[in-house]
Amino acid sequence: MARKPVSVYERLASKKSQYKYYAKAWDENLGIYSHTRSACSIATEFNLDEQKFPTPSRTGAFLIGQELLKRSGSSVKNCEVLLADYCATFWDWNKFWLGGYSS
User: Fold this and answer.
1) Residue 30's Cα: distance from chain center in Å?
2) DSSP state of 32
């Protein structure tokens, strides 16, 4: 199944009829999307020009998502673990009973 390299969506902000945009990029090596992050936080982290990458628009969020895809190695946070991944490896009986766990 073909996936979009960049996925952008909007969420309603605290003020009525205002939206914040979020983006995530597809990682071919891992076969999953990166963690969803706000377009504003990505633009701040990469020090992107507000004129070229406007955060309050969907198009700007898409451009920021493409920049995230381009720089994906520098944006991955090692401390973040998906809940599904954590739950899948939380209690592995084979490793537990065979003494395979190492701290």
Assistant:
1) 13
2) E
